[in-house]
Design a protein that fits this description.
Spore Coat Polysaccharide Biosynthesis Protein SpsA, Chain A, alpha/beta, 9 strands, globular, 7 helices, nine-stranded mixed β-sheet, disordered C terminus
């Protein structure tokens, strides 16, 4: 990927949101509406479908076609795990934004999320990657206690929501008010929601072939490479998003926050 990915036809401030989907359609059905509802324009969606067999491919194709008059949406497919790196490269080639946001499909974003991430990135050109706080993340991004229910209710019926989205958004608004303007520099950021400056990708993308099969979604390597390239990593302490955890890469991920 080179800076030429941003063409004269790309709107200023465009964010390319890359969403990996390893099946888990029920989570994608929560994530995508929250992105469409809570994201400021302009954005584009690039889905990475990793070997789904549960209707995800059909759902994403329908989204792509249904959103065609509103926003640009693309789908890249990796048939098996070994194809993830190639699919990530394909997604990056298609991404035209000034920023690229990695967003797991087991998240629910909240109002103002992109504005908060971009505002922190713009504090300094050195701020290369920015992430939020969440209920399921490694420290220092972890919010240990949230007031809403996570997971299905007792006697839940098929089709019942996995989480009360309105309760998530209410808590996020209260969290923003209580922590407004707070942020810290960190050594590592989780990949469940991560905003990356185009300059960072231009610097480290040629090395992607040497990474693990998870490519950009190996956030230990991604964080280290960004820091080696001279960029600062920052955590937006007044932004909360919900993360179910270990769902996007559930078939291969350890049961620990990322």
């Amino acid at each position: 990927m080179t800076p030429s990915n941003i063409s004269v036809s790309s709107p200023a401030g465009l964010v390319s949101i890359l969403i990996p989907c390893c099946g888990m359609l029920e989570f994608t059905r929560l994530c995508v509406p929250s992105v469409l509802r809570c994201s400021r324009d302009p954005v584009e969606l690039i889905f990475i479908d990793i070997g789904s067999l549960d209707g995800t491919a059909e759902y994403l194709a329908g989204l792509r076609d249904g959103l065609s008059n509103r926003i640009r949406a693309e789908v890249c497919r990796a048939a098996i795990d070994d194809d993830i790196a190639a699919a990530c490269k394909d997604a990056l080639k298609r991404a035209r934004g000034e920023y690229v946001c990695l967003l797991n499909n087991d998240t629910v974003v909240t109002p103002g999320w992109l504005e908060a991430l971009i505002a922190l990135a713009q504090v300094s050109p050195a701020n290369g990657m920015v992430g939020p706080m969440s209920n399921y993340a490694a420290a220092p991004q972890l919010v240990e206690t949230v007031p809403y229910r996570i997971g299905p209710r007792k006697n839940a019926r098929p089709g019942d929501p996995l989480v009360d989205v309105s309760a998530v958004q209410l808590f996020a608004n209260e969290f923003r008010g209580a922590n407004r303007g707070k942020w810290i520099q960190v050594e590592r950021l989780g990949g469940f929601c991560l905003l990356i400056r185009r300059a960072v990708l231009d610097r480290i993308e040629p090395q992607l072939a040497e990474w693990t099969n998870l490519s950009l979604f190996d956030t230990d390597i991604l964080s280290a490479k960004a820091r080696e390239a001279g960029f600062t990593l920052c955590c937006c302490r007044d932004l909360f998003i919900h993360h179910f955890g270990t769902r996007t890469f559930a078939h291969g991920a350890p049961p620990a926050p990322t």
